[in-house]
Amino acid sequence: xxxxxxxxLQFAFTxxxxxxxxxxxxxxxxxxVIMEGMYLKTKDKFFENMTKFWVKVFALTFAIGxxxxxxxxxxxxxxWATYSRFVGDVFGSALAAExxxxxxxxxxxxxxxxxxxxxxxxxMHFFSTIxxxxxxxxxxVWIVVANSWQQTPAGFHVVGEGINAxxxxxxxxxxxxxxxxxDRLSHVLSGCWLAGAFLIxxxxxxxxxxxxxxxxxxxxxxxxxxxxxxxxxxxxxxGHRSAVGIHENxxxxxxxxxxxxxxxxxxxxxxxxxxxxxxxKVNFGVAVPGMLSYLIGFDTNTxxxxxxxxxxxxxxPVNIVFQSYHLMxxxxxxxxxxxxxGVFFWWRGTLFKQRWMLWIFVFSVLLPQIANQIGWITAEVxxxxxxxxxxxxxxxxxSKSVEAGQVLFSxxxxxxxxxxxxxxxxxxxxxxxxxxxxxxxxxxxxxxHPKA
Amino acid sequence: xxxxxxxxxxxxxxxxxxxxxYAILDGxxxxxxxxxxxxxxxxxxxxxxxxxxxVWDGNEVWLVTGGxxxxxxxxxxxxxxxxxxYTALMMLLFMLIFRxxxxxxxxxxxxxxxxxxxxxxxxxxxxxxxxxxxxxxxxLITGVPIGPDKEFIGTFWSLINPYTILVGITTVALFxxxxxxxxxxxxxxxxxxxxxxxxNNTIIxxxxxxxxxxxATLIYYPxxxxxxxxxxxxxxxxxxxxxxxxxxxxxxxRGRYFFAFLSSCASIAALLSLFAFGIFPNFxxxxxxxxxxxxxxxxxxxxxxxxxxxxxxxxxxxxxxxYTISIYWIFRGKVKLxxxxx
Lengths: 452, 342
What we know:
The complex is a heterodimer of chains A (452) and B (342).
Chain A: H1 3-18, H2 21-42, H3 45-79, H4 81-115, H5 122-151, E1 156-159, E2 166-169, H6 172-176, H7 181-209, H8 214-249, H9 251-257, E3 269-276, E4 281-288, H10 291-297, H11 319-348, H12 355-364, H13 366-383, E5 386-388, E6 392-393, H14 404-435
Antiparallel strand pairs in A: 1-2, 3-4, 5-6
Chain B: H1 7-35, H2 42-52, H3 56-73, H4 75-84, H5 86-105, H6 112-142, H7 162-186, H8 189-220, H9 226-230, H10 235-253, H11 257-279, E1 282-284, E2 294-295, H12 303-330
Antiparallel strand pairs in B: 1-2
Helix pairs in contact in B: 1-3, 1-6, 1-7, 1-11, 3-4, 3-12, 5-6, 6-7, 7-8, 7-11, 10-11
């Protein structure tokens, strides 16, 4: 295997693993703000203990997120040096802004959130929780801005030629608010809220099924259900906006997502199918005629550009983009269904009696994780063969001084270490779940929690 | 020395300041890690760990931000060094991961073997990170082979020689001294007395390394003192450095640990300033042909980016300082364990 494929595999593997954790942190943090807010409002110790339990889970996801995140920052330089030279002027400032505005905020107040319960008053602690939550979202802002610039470059000009070519910034705000930033950021953030909130729902449903920590579990589910109902519906909207944006700015990606080979109006929307790339057709497909054209332009006469309008060397792989995109959408609708059904039973007052629903809740934690991963696959594989869309090819972005053997060595070590890390994560998460929150179910809340 | 006060120069020193911030802050927690295995009792080890508990990952953020700033302001330095030092940096990354994981996971289970395993990982990783940081710095002093296209043309082994190893060990010694002082400041009772005793040993260890490194630099890499010959006033930094180190035992004997810690911080800052003035205006010296060196001009981003980043830095830094100071203020005083501790 050559340096290119190894470097791509390594980046894909390390980013996919990293991307399990920050969404959990961002999503849990939002719920922490609500929980601790309720503690401040009601002065009920119960909510404080509830917050403390989820803070422990949060701290675990955060620690792995930080450790695997440093890897990402280094890899731009280690494996993609030529890319770094090309984008440094533009991409670097977003990354530096992330460090200054987001990471310091997050890590500073995290200390108070986790260790500061008896060092500061409840209001200051609540303030810290809000700051951690904001900090975690700010870091998503800057990194998604940087990635969006790779999808839809704006606010720059290219200086120099050949190997000396590089993008230089001309308009900072045009770079920040490039055509896909806002749509993609809102799509990513609501994906994060879903990931965190469904973890809370899953663990709590497990407690209910095991008849443990009943009051804690019921209250946690209710809080998280509100979050997932809003986030899953918002996801429908942001997903639609993103697709329209892709139609305008990255037509080859849209064509791959729906396997459109020839330019056409009245383009169909597939529900599922298997793309035969050689013969340019979709097997076993079921499609709604005209729906794709309708959705992107609210008019079935909207023309969709097909893959054949692009030179062969400019086309992304089709089937992988098609499959990951369709699975993501399917999961998106499933999440809306689960959320609405949950809220419906809650409204009817029968939510906690539906054991089958609780079982769905237990496994629902996997769905946003899968959707987040394959959503990124759609975005990043759909951008191929470009590392910066239309400007720099992935094959041109590599480090010239790095050899295949070095990358193979580091890739193998990453795989071993990350598998170990994942097992450890699951083990410790399970440990925390089995231990559970400090129970105050059985005693009146005025007395507070028993001395352990 | 040609010294024009332009954006490139400002960014050279701003990145230097981020590096100083990182060395001072992560320096003491790496130092505490390096001393960790010398403490035998489980409770004492937990106190050591919790003395850095709330702050260590905030300290690491200085490295992350420094890396981001280097990427943005001097992309060629970032690209050349990170790809050129590939294997060394991958090892650094693995160590950073091990260390973070060790800190986080050590106290989650009570078994002896479990804790011993993570203690070793934590301590070895801390030493190794300090060592690799020193080796990297040393390679910027010795210079590395660079081609006309700004690409590194050496191998992993061309980064390792007696001088770079010496600087690596000096860095470990410096952080051990720094960590011992921090530890003494944050603990009480027997553990405190033990750490207090180590401060003198680590100072002696550091001074031996420091003198050897200085001699080696003067003999083999005299270009490092070029600016000091031209601008003798810079020699003040070297004097400050010695005074700061000499002040540490004085403050310790008076029981003023906070001031001893500040002295130690000052000596780190002075040392890195000596280094920065030594290499200026180069970032990466090309050992094969000085014309291929990466300096603050041929490796920099556009003036516009440097200006935007300066605005970002100026608007962000007051907040960063405010958070950092308030966190250290909130967690001031001796370590007390509770149910949220590591």
